[in-house]
Amino acid sequence: DVKVTQSSRYLVKRTGEKVFLECVQDMDHENMFWYRQDPGLGLRLIYFSYDVKMKEKGDIPEGYSVSREKKERFSLILESASTNQTSMYLCASSLGLAGTDTQYFGPGTRLTVL
Amino acid sequence: AQSVTQPDIHITVSEGASLELRCNYSYGATPYLFWYVQSPGQGLQLLLKYFSGDTLVQGIKGFEAEFKRSQSSFNLRKPSVHWSDAAEYFCAVASSNDYKLSFGAGTTVTVRA
User: Fold this and answer.
1) pLDDT confidence bin for A2, thresholds 50/70/90
2) Closest chain A residue to B39 measured between Cα atoms?
3) Chain B residue nearest residue A59, CA to CA
4) Mean pLDDT for chain B?
5) At the N or C end, where does chain A have fewer CB atoms within 10 A?
6) Is the pLDDT score of B41 beyond 90?
């Protein structure tokens, strides 16, 4: 079974702090994704990576950056956390294109910014 | 741009009753369509997906969905719900040459005894 793990289930940070969310997948998948989930808005794509050191902006990249130094690990970085970044963050991975290969999701990190 | 609409924010259904969740999409070409479920405290799990061929798709946990091109819909159904089906359900769409999924806002299902 594919396993996608996220470093924390719950995280509380203060405004202005630099925040790192880590995601690891164990199936040698090429693609990794970071989504943000908010009530009434569903999941919105922040960034994705289709190869090591490669990244592309999703629909809501503002205020976020990402890092993928190794194939299995994809980090989401909030350079200076703000209260409007309080949300559930979901990581996912897939082998190929969304149309042909399933995206597998981690359990999520609920981030609260005070 | 592709988009997905789930008209129902919240549905309450009795255990043993049937369930239908609506999904409408907007996309120029033939879409790839998905239903995911998120149980409380869990990540998303794929229930089923439609790429082509038979418009009635069978998934896990006894769910099925029907693709209707004329109505731009991909509704999810289950004949008899169990208490464990209480969850949030997301419809998603992708194109054939894209890495990205576009999700609907989700429908929360409550199952009453």
Assistant:
1) low
2) A107
3) B102
4) 92
5) N
6) no
